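Support request, please re-run this one:
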Amino acid sequence: MVSGASSGLGEHIAELLADNGVAVVCAARRLDLLENLAERIKARGGKALAVAMDVTDRASVKAGFDLAEKEFGTPDIIFSNAGATGRQPFIEMDEDNWDHVLNVNIKGVFNLGQEAAQRMLASGIGGNIINISSICAVSSFKGLTHYSASKGAVNQLTAVMGHELLEHGIRVNALAPGFLHTDLVADYYETEQGKADLANLPLGRAGRLSELDGAILLLASNAASYMAGTVVTADAAHSLRLG
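Re-run finished. Output below.
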């Protein structure tokens, strides 16, 4: 199951997993986009199911898992990718903006991860949960107070989940990308500040989604059987330069 699969990194993860033989449950709020994604996957010979899901609403998460289990059985690979962001200086940040980003980025990860773990335990299976973090969790970027705080929380949640769930055969890790070309930030990269940010990156550009494929497949597979509670960073050393 991949949350936030209607666009960007989530869409890419869903297609990558399907191309590698995984039956994929594509979850997000925009069902029309998910259905198009599922049809593309099926047209290439893959297996996919589109389910409407709002990760901030536990009832919606439960309903999505019910549909997934009916179609494919209990999902044993979970990519908790749904996310929200938006730049606003700390001194100007309004409470609604703060609440929205924190609800999606940390409550959503909690909801999806706990529901997944409970279902895995009830089904007597193990599995992998991969939370999508960011280098913003460990580096400071102006205007991203809410996003950075939420991703820092994701890192710590990943550590505790990884610690607690490993004894149940459930591995939990996180993937922390650097700047990527996605729909979420495409408009920002066209601004003067966005262009300046890209020019200052180690490679002088944002990462391509395909450049995360190795890390994605590693964390989703048994090749990562000795990894739990860790954060894998893929940012071309951007965070090291900032640190």
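The chain has a mean pLDDT of 95. DSSP finds nine helices and seven strands in the chain.
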